[in-house]
Amino acid sequence: MPLSFNQRLALIIEQPEVGNERQLSQLLGHNSPEIISRLMRMKNPNPSLRFLANIVTQLDFVNAEWLLTGEGPVRKPSTFYPALAGDRVGRICAVFGLSVNELAELTKKNSAYVQEVTVHPGRGIDLDFFVEILDVFPNISPRWWAFNEGTMLRKVKK
Questions:
Q1: CA separation for the pair 85, 62 (Å, rounded)
Q2: Are residues 69 and 101 in the same domain?
Q3: Of 18, 45, 75, which residue sits at a domain end?
Q4: Are 74 and 7 in contact (CB under 8 A)?
Q5: What is the mean pLDDT of the chain?
Q6: Which domain holds residue 118?
Q7: Interior CA angle at 95 toward 92 and 99, to 5°?
Q8: b/e per residue, 77-96, with b = 16+ CB within 10 A?
Q9: pLDDT over threshold 80, residue 117
Q10: What was the pLDDT predicted at 97?
């Protein structure tokens, strides 16, 4: 069953780029979080097309189909896990004693792409790279890799 608009709005607020109602309001160009709060409280909110278009335009990671229907992933595939920072890619290289080129080779990614992610820590990464890191390094904690929470390494059961 698709999520209600209130649930979808709550999931947008939980994204690392947003954080709370006030921040979402500011990102959407509103001075006050009142419109967001009101939509969150309504039983069956019916936001305007302009409001929905503003979300998709201002929050370029939001999947428009998901926003409209409640089906599919919250994030556009190309912006999956944008909170992943180059500092984590750099840390993986340091812990495993790899150069950026060696990491690129292991993950089947273009070395220029891996270098770009490392040099610009705020840049998002694509889903393929995210999954490939976990495949190549099964002892890396997915929670750490995705959200920078917990410890980097975990014990892998044999």
A1: 19
A2: no
A3: 75
A4: no
A5: 81
A6: 86-147
A7: 65
A8: eebbbbebbbebbbebbeee
A9: no
A10: 92
